[in-house]
Amino acid sequence: MNFLYFIGGVAGGFLAIIYSKWITDNTSRIDIAEEWLGAGGTYNFWKLIGLILIGFGFYALFNM
Question: How many C-beta atoms lie closer than 10 Å to residue 52's C-beta?
């Protein structure tokens, strides 16, 4: 089961990183991300979410 979490986390993370512009264009900008991360903060927010998903995927696989 952990292998499925790994595959889902890595795939979801890569999709969030690759399609951060599409996600932002089809949803609204996140005001707190724009404030804390500066101009283009929403794009960076989605990329950070993608990295966190990848990290959780590896965590689930290796069960540290």
Answer: 13
Q: Which long-range contacts (CB under 8 A, 24 or more apart) does 43-52 make?
A: 46/16, 46/17, 46/20, 47/16, 47/17, 47/20, 49/13, 49/16, 50/12, 50/13, 50/14, 50/15, 50/16, 50/17, 50/20, 51/13, 51/17, 52/13
pLDDT band at 64 (very low <50, low <70, confident <90, very high): low
Reported as a single tens digit per residue, the pLDDT across 1-42 is 889 999 999 999 999 999 999 999 999 899 999 999 989 999
Contact 6, 60 (CB under 8 A): yes
What does the alpha-carbon distance between residue 64 and residue 52 come to, in Å, rounded to a whole number? 15
By residue count, the chain amounts to 64
